[in-house]
Specification:
Elements: H1 2-13, H2 25-32, H3 36-48, E1 52-55, E2 59-62, H4 67-88, H5 94-113, H6 122-125, H7 127-139, H8 143-153, H9 158-167, H10 169-188, H11 191-214, H12 218-222
Antiparallel strand pairs: 1-2
Helix pairs in contact: 1-3, 2-3, 4-7, 4-8, 4-11, 5-7, 5-10, 7-8, 9-10, 10-11
């Protein structure tokens, strides 16, 4: 059951099963090669975790998060990542700093290439953004902190987070600039600046995501006639 729940969760977080989509037990059972019972139990588990919800007439659907939930999640994430950035100042190595610079340069190159990029899939094109934050969390030297940040990173589907960088060139450019400033503070050994810049960066990302949900009515996710 836990394995089935994990597989459904991964398909949701990857965007393979989109937000607002209906989850049909029979289809999932066939896809995973199991009976309906473990699928049913897995859906109950995911409902308890808040990833899906059950409607009387539609059954289980992937839950659409409210903008206030997004902002709250990112408020917490901002504080944790700020702490990670401050701690990373004492532990980060020149090799890590080079890795962060390369990740940011590669993301910028792919963004500038636009349609000429041989890999047009947003989630793959911008996976470096998640890697950038993961390097800093790992350099914090606190495994519990790193794990908590990873869990918050997985709170919303990766395809939506990547889509933000593709659809909004100004936000995309700001994102890379903010990364450069964070790396600069880390390289300078300025823990206060690194933490402050990281906090502001993550809060801004949360605001962008919250607005993304606000700008899309329930008709986009639920198929309600306009």
């Amino acid at each position: 059951m836990d394995q089935v729940a994990a597989r459904i969760r991964e398909r949701i977080l990857s965007g393979d099963i989109p937000i607002g989509a209906q989850l049909r037990q029979a289809e999932l059972a066939v896809d995973f090669g199991v009976s309906r019972m473990p699928v049913r139990e897995a859906l109950r588990q995911l409902q308890t975790g808040g990833l899906i919800e059950v409607h009387p007439n539609r059954g289980a659907v992937v839950r659409v998060p409210a903008p206030w939930e997004v902002r709250e999640t990112y408020e917490v994430r901002a504080e944790l990542e700020a702490l990670a950035a401050r701690r990373a100042v004492r532990r980060i190595t020149p090799a890590h700093l080079d890795q962060l610079r390369v990740l940011n340069l590669e993301m910028r190159r792919r963004a500038d290439a636009g349609g000429a990029d041989p890999d047009p899939e947003p989630t793959r094109r911008h996976r470096g953004n998640e890697d950038f934050h993961t390097v800093i969390a790992a350099c914090s030297g606190n495994h519990r902190l790193h794990r908590a940040i990873d869990e918050l990173h997985a709170a919303y589907p990766r395809n939506i987070l990547a889509r933000l960088l593709v659809d909004d060139p100004r936000y995309c450019a700001d994102n890379f600039t903010e990364h450069d400033r964070i790396v600069g503070a880390l390289a300078a050994g300025d823990a206060a600046a690194a933490g402050s810049l990281m906090r502001e960066h993550v809060v801004q990302a949360g605001e962008q995501l919250a607005r993304w949900f606000e700008q899309r009515s329930s008709t986009v996710f639920r198929g309600v006639p306009g």
